[in-house]
Every structure is written in C-alpha cells, then in structure tokens.
Amino acid sequence: MDHQDLPLPVGQYAQLENGLTLHYLDVGEGPVVLWLHGSGPGASGFSNFKTNYPLFAEAGYRNIVLDLPGFGRSSKPEDAHYNLEFFVECLNQFLQATGIERCTLLGNSLGGAIALGQALAHPSTVERLVLMAPGGVEERETYFQMEGIVRMVEVYGQGPMGVEEMRQVMQLQLFDASQLDDELLKERAAVAVTQPANLFSTMMVPNMTERLGELTCPILGFWGNNDRFNPVEGVFKFLDKAPHARFLMLNRCGHWVQVEHTDLFNRTCIDFLQHG
C-alpha cells in the first residue's frame, strides 16, 4: 500500500539531515508539545493521540504529532537498525529541521523511551516530560516476557496483519477491550502492511534506570495497574531516582491511559503544562 492510500490525515513533512522524511501533524499555536507514539504494529501519531491533542490545541498549545521512522507516513528504511540511538538521532534532527529549540516531549511506551533518550542526550531541548508507561527502564528480556509483547511478536511473525489479527494484539493494550473501535483497527492494519520486516527485530532500547537521576526537567507520568506490556513497577524507578517526578497510577487501565481514561489524562496534562 502506498503512503498516499493510508486512512490517516496528511500533515507536513520534514527532511532530515540523514536523508529520511518524517511526517507530522502541526495543530494549534503556543508552547510546543511534541507527541511520540509507541511501537505496536501499525502505530502512528494520529491513531495513538487523536482524542488528546485537539484538547491541548484548544488549551493554547502547538501540537506536533509525529510519525516515528518506520511508522505512519514517515520513511521506513529497510536497512536501518531501529534502536534507541537511531530514534533519538532522528528526533533531534527533526527538531533542528523544524526550528523547534525547546518543547515538552510527551511519549507512550517506545515514545516514552525516546523522550527519555532525548532528555538525557540533549537536555536543553526538553522543557518537560509527560510519560505514559514509558519503555527504557527494564532489560529487553523482561519486556519480551510480558503477555502483550509475546502476543504482538507471535501475531506479527505470522505474516500480514488484517483487522482481526490487529484486534488480537490490541485487545491486550486495554483493560476494557470494548473500547477498541474498528476504525482504529483499520488505520493500524493499513500501516502495518507497509512496515519493514526488520523494524521489530532490530528494536533495541537500553535500560536507562541508573541515569534517571540526571533528568533535571519536571516529569509527569501515568501507568495503568493492568498494563500487560510494561511492568508497572517501573513507576517506582522514576519516583526513587528522578528528582522532579510525579506519577498517577490507575486501576482498570492497561497500556493506553490516553485512550482508556481520556478526560482524566487530558485534564491532568494540561494542568501540568499550565502550572508545573
């Protein structure tokens, strides 16, 4: 499927120094919030955050909703190593290409790990962090024992993912799977068939737990107690080590707090942005 045929809105494109092109939506005016989605098959900035960023725009923020390389409408190189260093390099080049000097990074899962990587490597670019069940605070083996990731790898390895295959994986993202709508599944299935085979096999994210104390910016985090992708114990690593961190833990919540508890998430984040 050609990128033009994807059932996703078309925004703008940034050409990076490394030759890749990243697609993003640019919505609203004001201080910049840059949205970083997770790594599930078929993910895109729009499908992850479509019920969130419009409210941030109404509250007076400029929202840059990025498709990471390998996802959405962005470049999907088949020879890249999709490790944390690669994603952070692309993010930093994206900030340079778009002239964004400083912003709030908001990331879910892999996106949270990339936000952490950027804040550690280029702290002057990050004003605040908003993290939803971020990766990067466990060893790879721990993640790959989680029920959701086991299912994701299993289904992805069986070949092209249609809507029903996507449902099998996505059901585990949520505490209440009835919140999954077919439109979201179609969006993700359409993107999944365009993704390179090496995307998940080369995805390496180091355990950054011991470096959390280096983070000087304020951090707001969320974690669902029913998360089947990232161990909820990660909350306490941030609270123990990062100097300016607060986390909201929710029950009846899986890996997608911004979808499962949309109003609470939006209100809490906007309050954090406005009042610190």
TrEMBL record:
It comes from Marinobacterium weihaiense. GO terms for molecular function: hydrolase activity. InterPro entries: AB_hydrolase_1. The keyword Manganese does not apply. It comes from the Bacteria. This is Alpha/beta fold hydrolase. Pfam families: Abhydrolase_1. Keywords: Hydrolase. Residues 31-134 form the AB hydrolase-1 domain.
